Amino acid sequence: MGLLTCIFPERGIYINEKLSIRFPTFASLFLEKKVPKTDISNIIALADAEDADTLKSDSDLAVVNAIEAKDSTIKLNTSIQYKNSTKSAMTNFFAALANINNEPKSIRILHYGDSQIEGDRISDYLRLKLQGQFGGEGPGLISFMPVAPSVINKISWSTGWDRYQTFAGKDKRVKHNSFGAMAHITRFAPYITVMDTTSYKTAWVKLVTTKSGGPKAAAFTKIKLFYGGAQTKTHVELYENGSFNNSDSLIAGGTFNVKEFNLNQGALLHEFRFKGKDSPDFYGVSLEGSKGIMVDNFGLRGSSGTFFNQINYSQLKNFYDYLNTKLIILQFGGNSLPYITTKEQANNFGLYLKAQINTIKKMAPQASILVIGPADMSVKEGAEYVTHPQLENLRDAIKRTAFDADCAFFDMYNCMGGKNSMLTWVEQGVAAKDYIHFSSGGARKIAVLLYSSLINDYNSYNKSK
Question: What domains sit in the chain, N to C, each tagged with a CATH number?
């Protein structure tokens, strides 16, 4: 093996466009300096301290704003960043939060992201803390067929159900663009033309709510079905812990219909039973209370976040208005990075994202927008894992876009330690061995630092008023 390191071609042996054979060189194994590892001990300690509620005073909270690693050349920033000192980008959300007792209904935070947040990761901690301080019940808007399982809701369904999405390329089976706020729909029957002779179809969905998200997430008092697009009426029945609750008809047509069911307290199993000649497009089901704050997790695996202008404008505006949306979090970029090879391409992604933000601002002018930059992502360079060469260019492009559009920005890459920090996160068991995704524990630590910065800025806003 040692002999091979001396005689094997440095650039490898070319097989075809998709395949080549490489072998570590002698220099890479024995002579060249190894990739330096980032010390994240201060970051982990800070996150653990915040999670345990040990940081109380303003002087302690100031630690959140900047941590200096042992290597003095590395500056770590765990605070939300703004274009100007007035922090105007978050004013609408902070004002709604301060006035939450006078709001006619719950205010919403919609957390859009890629696979880094799927399964309710990061969002669950924001929900736990915010509902604990400002009130609110339930996990919010979820899908009948989630992309990934959640720690709060375990969902099962009968045969015949299918998911149709637009968040990572539009499903060609769908001839319209009314995909709702979650950028995908579910149906228990395929798209067909219904005739009078069409037989009735039946289907069911069961929602089991666990207490893993805290007592408030499991204490919702109502369920709302968001649906539309059916050719005929659909009969629906709701059962709680096996006991009949109510039944009704879901109307045909439309792109934004809501059916609300009031619940008996304490039930953790809810089952919907449907019967109809055609299936509605189900845009989601919301488990919620009447007041306080809701945090909705939209983990969209494979998405780059460039789908908002592909959804029916009036429908999406109806969603944002109805949900009383006050903050929209956008956490994308990781799925585009593997295809970015130049700084120009990174800048172009920033322009694509800016177009999406401008669309969102038109549909939800009452909402603040917080943009979260990509996490560190490692690629293999010879025998070593190193930060993707275009990651910092992409991060910078996303940050410029956020500031140009008057949005707040959270630098997740710098927060976790900056260059080559993913190696240490993997070694310490707080990131997956794909060197891309956090583990559940790692996601929790990022969520703690994000929440700490958010609530610190809110407290500062309140003091200024």
Answer: 1-32 (no CATH), 33-136+292-465 (3.40.50.1110), 137-290 (2.60.120.260)
